[in-house]
Amino acid sequence: MISGAPASGKGTQCELIVKKFRLVHVSTGDLLRAEVAxxxxxxxxxxxxxxxxxxxxxxxxxxxxxxxxALEDVKQRGWLLDGYPRSYAQxxxxxxxxxxxxxxxxxxxxxxILIDRCVxxxxxxxxxxxxxxxxxxxxxxxxxxxxxxxxxxxxEKYSTLLLSFHGMIVR
Length: 171
Description:
The chain is mostly helical. 53% of the residues lie in helices and 12% in strands.
């Protein structure tokens, strides 16, 4: 299980861990985006929160995570939970279902760095690939021209999200 604030590097670290240990990467962000894209009931409920730069309520995220952990590929290969649990209620949900990690990794990154990562982040709407204007620029001018800033990748929205995140950390 890996945890950290948004933009702390969970996705990057997960790629390395999943590749090395052949685990199933279960990302709450990926699950949420897939549900929204599919237009499911859960996706439609989550969409309003996501577009406002807010965290999706526990019951929605928990339902998606537990459903994913019940699938056969996860049972066979094991899992790496990315960004879950984010609240005491989510942690309690896992505990009640006897779902416990063998290893728990916390990425602790200073807020100033998180804000810089977020504000500099750009999305390629064609490929879905994420870039950063300073740390991971696009390969060419064609890609650079089509990059967009996600609505929640502003300093104001991210600062608010960080305050919310810090208030929900399970300690």
